[in-house]
Write a structure and sequence with these properties.
The chain is of the alpha+beta class. The chain is built from 18 helices and 13 strands. The strands form three sheets. Strands 1, 2, 3, 4, 5 and 6 form a six-stranded antiparallel β-sheet that branches. The protein has a five-stranded mixed β-sheet with strand order 8-9-10-7-11. A hairpin with a 5-residue loop joins strand 2 and strand 3.
Length: about 525
């Protein structure tokens, strides 16, 4: 047996799990730790490799050559009584692996899954190794959150390109004794990578969270965990008017100048200015202003500002029915937020991407993007972004004619008071309807699809009350449309014509398409 360290090319994914760097060192992507990679002429191997505690993985490179990967940490001697405990550990490890294999084998396109495992740290390490091997044998790339956060080794874009288009198993070891800043950085990195996965493919990716401590517990839902600490706030790039470039801020007098008083001037951000124009029906001017803002901020290296402008432009285009162009802007915003390290912004952009894909009738891709966006929001503890992603997911499931699942998502939002408050506070662009209002309207549509006219009427009435409290023609238009659909389902043409007419008048006043 020989060490193949010197002959390993850098940047080549080995056995779907191991990554060699420029120095020839090999790292385990499942843990982020450095390992020992050895190749040998293939002969008959040990009877039971599971009992080799230092052996992480093994396999065949070709018919004549095999490989083994060993941990670099030293082993230890154990008493004879340890053998019985080892057998118990192996049985518990196998039970977890069977659960993961079941999730992998029964995965459907567009439906990423999550699994959380809690237990003693020593047992979980054995579980992690077995899960990583089982997943890579089934075509998944096991990838640790430590690698994504850059805490293990210098994970460059070359690694992300190597796993592009692959099934990925994200392994999140949630050890809370680490410093808060490191923990928040890892949460942010995982969330941004999840959004990247959802934007690139609709493969049934898998997320496994390992939580050391307590008793062994299995669940099929990713729980919220500890809310992440946001390490940076969004920078909007404040600037006053100048003639060298199209002004990012304009100065407007708040009252006429007089000889006895000095006027007050107000600075308006480019995003606020563009959205103000859109709300007054000047959509072409708003679009030009946002495109200029994206270019201006990108040239000055303000990635977050450019991403925020691209996100606003995507919402504007989506509201005008230009879903394909909106999708491009949302994807650009997600990539920029990812590069800037803004996890919450990446989740918002991924949600917008899912909405655009839904409008393009690319429903499987939309479902995958929205489910992963919701997972990412849970990872960083962003309740507002989670509510918006789950609402968009419910809309996608409605168009997939999976009404029971769509109703379940809406019901889970309505049953959680804190979540519902976050939902009501979640807004899109200035010319977009209130998210809470959209939730009630979608609830009415789902109830109609399930032939439940009573629930549909109640949801439409709640939407109307919400629109009245909000005010504004766009909210009124959306609410009247929901009520018109309810009256149409029961054959009440008088009230149908009434609400349709009121909705059209409100749409004209709101300059809505």
């Amino acid at each position: 047996m020989g060490d193949a360290r010197g002959s390993l090319p850098a940047g080549l994914l080995l056995a779907d799990r191991f990554w060699p760097d420029e120095r020839g060192c090999v790292y385990d992507l499942a843990t982020g730790e450095r390992v020992s990679w050895k190749t040998f002429e293939r002969r008959e191997g040990p009877a039971d490799r599971r009992l080799s505690r230092g052996l992480l993985d093994y396999g065949r490179l070709d018919r004549a050559t095999g490989f083994e990967v060993h941990a670099r940490r030293p082993g230890h001697r154990a008493a004879r009584s340890y053998g019985r405990r080892l057998g118990e550990d192996l049985r518990s490890v196998e039970a977890i692996v069977f659960q993961v294999v079941d999730l992998i084998d029964n995965g459907r396109a567009g439906e990423p899954r999550a699994m959380a495992v809690s237990g003693p740290a020593s047992t979980l390490r054995s579980v992690l190794g077995a899960v990583a091997r089982a997943s890579r044998l089934r075509g998944f790339v096991p990838l640790s959150a430590r690698v994504l956060a850059g805490a293990a080794f210098g994970a460059s874009g070359q690694l992300l390109e190597a796993i592009e288009g692959r099934h990925v198993l994200v392994i999140d070891w949630q050890e809370r004794c680490r410093p808060a800043r490191e923990f928040a950085r890892q949460r942010s990195a995982v969330a941004r990578f999840i959004c990247r996965l959802g934007a690139r493919s609709f493969r049934p990716h898998l997320l496994v969270s390992f939580r050391p401590g307590g008793h062994l517990l299995l669940t099929r839902r990713l729980e919220s965990g500890v809310p992440a600490i946001e390490t940076a706030s969004l920078s909007r790039g404040l600037r006053l008017s100048a003639r060298e470039e199209p002004a990012a801020y304009e100065v407007r007098p708040c009252r006429p100048l007089t000889s006895t008083a000095v006027s007050t001037v107000g600075c308006q951000s480019p995003l606020a200015r563009a959205l103000d124009r859109a709300s007054h029906g000047r959509h072409a001017e708003a679009e030009r202003s946002l495109r200029e803002t994206i270019g201006w901020m990108a040239r000055r290296g303000n990635e977050v500002g450019a991403a925020s402008a691209a996100l606003a432009l995507g919402r504007l285009l989506l509201g005008r029915g230009r879903a394909g162009e909106a999708r491009v802007q949302f994807d650009s915003a997600r990539a920029a937020f990812d590069a800037a390290g803004s996890a919450s912004g990446a989740v918002e952009a991924a949600t917008g991407l899912g909405l655009a894909l839904t409008d393009e009738a690319r429903l499987l891709e939309a479902e995958a993007a929205l489910r992963l966006a919701a997972f990412a929001a849970v990872t960083i503890g962003a309740r507002r972004e989670e509510a918006a992603a789950r609402l968009a997911l419910s809309r996608c499931l409605y168009w997939l004619e999976r009404f029971e699942e769509a109703a379940s998502e809406i019901a889970s939002l309505a049953s959680d008071k804190d979540q519902d408050a976050a939902l009501m506070a979640a807004h899109g662009a200035a010319d977009s309807p209130d998210t809470g209002l959209l939730a009630r309207c979608l609830e009415a549509r789902i109830a109609l699809a399930r032939h439940d006219s009573v629930r549909a009427a109640a949801a439409a009435r709640a939407a109307s009350c919400r629109a009245q409290s909000l005010g504004g023609p766009l909210a009124s238009c959306v609410a009247h449309r929901a009520e018109a659909a309810v009256y149409a389902s029961i054959g009440d043409t008088v009230h149908l014509q009434q609400h349709a007419g009121l909705g059209l008048d409100a749409a004209r006043r709101a300059h809505a398409p």
